[in-house]
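Example 9 (inverse folding). The structure is encoded as follows.
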């Protein structure tokens, strides 16, 4: 298995209207995105080509919205809103997904 392209733990993962986990993990490895619970159970997974991610205009800098297999998830990087490292993680996540969507395969 290759080294992960992106990995963040302590991520709050929500699927409207409810929270799925407050301490989940987002993992991008081998061309796939996986959303995991704090126990390592897969919430959802898809090839990066099929994932869309964006920063919502109505939320803080540490928030992203990812569409995986047609389902929208709100990801709050760094756990609770307002943590400084969350903004950096959100930017790295968006860049990783963007890079994968523009890569020629």
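The amino acid assigned to each position is listed next.
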């Amino acid at each position: 298995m290759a080294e992960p392209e992106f990995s963040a733990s302590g991520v709050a993962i929500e699927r409207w209207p409810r929270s799925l986990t407050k301490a989940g993990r987002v993992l991008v490895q081998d061309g796939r995105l996986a959303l995991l619970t704090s126990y390592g159970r897969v919430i959802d997974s898809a090839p990066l080509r099929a994932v869309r991610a964006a920063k919502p205009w109505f939320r803080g800098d540490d928030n992203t919205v990812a569409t995986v297999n047609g389902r929208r998830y709100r990801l709050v990087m760094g756990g609770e809103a307002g943590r400084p490292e969350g903004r950096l993680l959100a930017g790295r996540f968006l860049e990783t997904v963007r890079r994968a969507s523009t890569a020629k395969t």
